[in-house]
Amino acid sequence: MKANWIPRRIAVVGAGAMGSLFGGLLAEGGLEVYLIDVWREHIEAVRKRGLKITGEGGERIVKVGAAVDPEEVGIVDVVLVQTKARHTAEATRNARCLFGRDTVAVSFQNGLGNEEVIAGIVGREKVLGGETAQGSGMVEPGVIRHAGNLPSHVGELEGGISERVRIIAATFTGAGLDTFASENIMKDIWKKLLANIGINAISALCNFRVGEIFDTPETRETILEALDEAALVAKAEGVEVNVEETKEVLDSITGKGGTGSNRSGMLVDVLNKRKTEIDFINGAIVRLGKKHGIPTPVNKTLTAAVKGLECNFD
After folding, report:
1. Is 150 exposed, middle or buried (0-12, 13-18, 19+ CB in 10 A)?
2. Domain spanning 187-310: which superfamily?
């Protein structure tokens, strides 16, 4: 990293609800930001009218760069990878032109394995892990709804807090996206994974908003059983998390001040008849459970049920 490196040019690869939120907040805070996505209608709307943010913080229009082709943007300081997990590899390959000698990639995606996919394309030394509890929903092309202003974390994959992590966290926080440097980002990612295990499949299968997942005793019991399985798998992977920690994350997300009124990303995918990220969330627990000889019947059932829904998509 060159001396006096400050991340000023930011590219967001994957400008869905969350990518647009991150890009919009950072642009609003004075950074030079470019939203990159294959969804031409959304990109054209942002180009013509700016990004409209509603909900948290009030309604406003934010001027932010937007492009379909990463070549239009050129080399940036930080690339935020915000695509759905199943698109990570293709999107990162297409975005290689954004990377210079000191460019850093940060994944704020759901699920496990995104960082490794990105590292395999641009080099592990260029990749940081990210975790966020922010909530956002897509209203229409060019318009998002900020559902809850919760903190984000960024950190080195190997642990510890480096200078570049400190700088990115401070820069993002200064621009209005509260971001903390993490000593153990992989633990943070696992905690977020457990939160997604608790929220996504049940919300998608039951058509629940985030704040409704615990309202039914049977779904609450199922969620807690799925989390118990996931915590055992995490421990086998060398990551110490527990259900009490995860319940704290879930309470912050589903409770007052969180994103309880929001639809989960998996429910939005199901409602729009799109393939979900189930293989990278509950499905990841099933795969790693097999690796370590740990039974994961609840996560296996939830994965099968969501994939059964996907079979009905046109």
Report:
1. middle
2. N-(1-d-carboxylethyl)-l-norvaline Dehydrogenase; domain 2 (1.10.1040.10)
Tens-place pLDDT, residues 25-42: 999 999 999 999 999 999
pTM: 0.88
Average pLDDT on 162-167 reads 96
State yes or no: is 192 an active-site residue: yes
Distance between CA atoms of residues 295 and 226, nearest Å: 11
Virtual torsion, Cα 236, 277, 37, 88, nearest 10 deg? 40
Which position among 192, 247, 300, 307 bears the catalytic label?
192
Q: How confident is the model at residue 258 (pLDDT cuts 50, 70, 90)?
A: low
CATH level 2 (architecture), domain 9-183:
3-Layer(aba) Sandwich (3.40)
Instruction: Point out which residues pair with 9 in neighbouring strands.
Output: 32
Whose tokens are 């950074």? That residue is 31
φ, ψ dihedrals at 141, nearest 5°: -55, 125
Distance CA 275, CA 86 (A): 9
**One-letter amino acid of 60:** R
